[in-house]
Design goal:
The chain is 40% helix and 14% strand. The chain is of the alpha/beta class. The protein folds into three domains: 1-31, no CATH class; 39-72 and 328-436, Aspartate Aminotransferase, domain 1, CATH 3.90.1150; 74-326, Type I PLP-dependent aspartate aminotransferase-like (Major domain) (Aspartate Aminotransferase, domain 2, 3-Layer(aba) Sandwich), CATH 3.40.640. The two termini are 27 Å apart. The structure holds pyridoxal-5'-phosphate. It comes from Actinomadura viridis.
Length: 437
């Protein structure tokens, strides 16, 4: 929406956005927050968010997946309140909460012996890439078309591309040196041969393969067993590291992340988002033999960060993980609700004669506007992007918050109920009818 359009609007959202644009470029602090009409958000509780114009939304956006237990989860808020007013930030020595958090994480993530704490997922993946290069002495990284690992240079290629640009040179941002972009190679998810071909073309030069074990940044592609096991074997055989970027899947699908579910262990794991249930914290974990390359342990990989391991974020993450440990039924519940949603969406598409495929895993769901099977990014080229965006936009207009961008996924939290899912499906059926007609 242009600033001139905003001037004619009277909603509180439009007014705040106009004020925001004077002092924040574009009015928002992360580019994909501003899609659709302007909204000023004022409150969030449980499964709902409320805007300044009095609208209430059932929230499946979940702050891009950072909300897992519901907004303002009492257990997390209490832990944060208890932390505030005690030790804030000293930047010297070691603090109890960061140690407790690392203990919990290394107990729960199967491949983790040690962890470092960062403030964001991007910092965690940046450290993972740098560590891989330092350990192997090699320059190149492999990522998959459609995968997103944060905003930094090493992973700023081939995120979600228009079909004509997929697999080509597709930088996420200006201002990145061609050498940096050229040091990242692109493969096709669920296609081991595409990775083998890169090893043939660049022998002894690939430091690591980084992957979202389920690429939720393009909805939800589920890896085949042969693919993950094959990647594990291939990277080991070729002397590279395998990095699971579990920033979305971590803690969300299982306490030990997707690696616990598939039984394949990466060398390094990054995680973030849901682990703090909305508070800023992320991390990188791996075996001691790799993690001790960080400068904190005398290695040559710089570990620095003023806010790393800060007591308040650590308290939020400890409370989130303890909640999950104390409520193993959380996973059964959210997975069952996810199944109910996917089955309902598939049934609605079948009933209405729409070529749709409900995809997802656990509490994450997406509705592709394409016939199954959808295994990799190439299959997603068949997705009807306009229908996908229209579906999300019209659902949001009806009070079911689903980010209106193509291939964005939706999240079910501990605060959603079966009634919520059924209400959503009822609305989805109506919206799908409008899309078909
Ligand atoms: N990795 C994945 C899989 C992500 O989805 C994201 C963010 O969406 C990141 C890394 C970057 O995390 P952050 O936004 O906390 O920097």
């Amino acid at each position: 929406m242009t600033t001139a359009d905003l001037a004619g609007q009277t909603s509180a959202g439009a007014r705040l956005l106009a004020a925001a644009r004077a002092v924040i470029p574009g009015g928002v602090n992360s580019a994909t927050r501003l899609v659709g009409p302007p909204h000023a958000l004022t409150a969030a509780s449980g499964a709902y968010v409320t805007d300044a114009d009095g609208r209430r939304y059932l929230d499946y956006h979940a702050a891009f997946g950072a909300i897992l237990l519901g907004h303002a989860a009492p257990e997390v808020d209490e832990a944060v309140r208890a932390a505030v007013g005690g030790l804030d930030l000293v930047g010297w020595g070691v603090t109890e909460p960061e140690v407790e958090l690392a203990r919990l994480v290394t107990e729960t993530i199967p491949s983790a012996e040690q962890m470092i704490s960062t403030m964001s997922g991007s910092e965690a993946t940046a450290q993972a890439v740098r560590l891989s290069r330092a350990v192997t002495g090699r320059p190149l990284i492999v990522k998959f078309q459609g995968g997103f690992h944060g905003w930094h240079d090493a992973v700023a290629r081939n995120v979600i591309s228009a079909p004509d640009r997929a697999y080509g040179s597709d930088p996420l941002s200006g201002g990145i040196l061609p050498e940096a972009l050229g040091s990242t190679l692109i493969a096709e998810f669920n296609d081991l041969d595409s990775v083998r071909a890169l090893y043939e073309a660049h022998p002894d030069r690939i430091a690591a393969v980084i992957m979202e074990p389920i690429p939720h940044n393009v909805g939800a592609l589920v890896p085949s067993r042969e693919f993950v096991e094959g990647l594990r074997a291939l990277t080991t055989e070729r002397g590279s590291l395998l990095i699971f970027d579990e920033v979305i899947t971590g803690f969300r699908h299982a306490l030990g992340g997707y690696q616990q579910i598939c039984g394949v262990l990466p060398d390094l794991t990054t995680f973030g988002k849901a682990m703090g249930n909305g508070y800023p914290i992320a991390g990188l974990a791996g075996p001691r033999r790799l993690m001790e390359h960080f400068s904190s342990a005398g290695g040559d990989v710089l570990l620095a960060g003023t806010f790393n391991g800060n007591p308040v974020s650590s308290a939020a993450a400890i409370a989130t993980i303890e909640y999950l440990r104390g409520h193993p039924d959380f996973y059964e519940r959210t997975h069952a609700l996810g199944d109910r949603m996917r089955a309902g969406l598939d049934a609605a598409c079948a009933e209405l004669g729409i070529a749709g495929t409900a995809a997802g895993f656990g509490g994450v769901f997406a509705l592709y506007f394409a016939e199954s099977p959808i295994r990799g990014y190439r299959d997603l080229m068949r997705n009807d992007d306009a229908a996908y965006v229209a579906f999300h936009r019209r659902m949001t207009e009806r009070g079911f918050l689903m980010l209106p961008l193509t291939l964005k996924r939706n999240h079910i939290s501990a605060a959603h109920t079966a009634e919520d899912v059924d209400r959503t499906l009822e609305a989805a059926r109506d919206v799908l009818r409008t899309i078909r007609d």
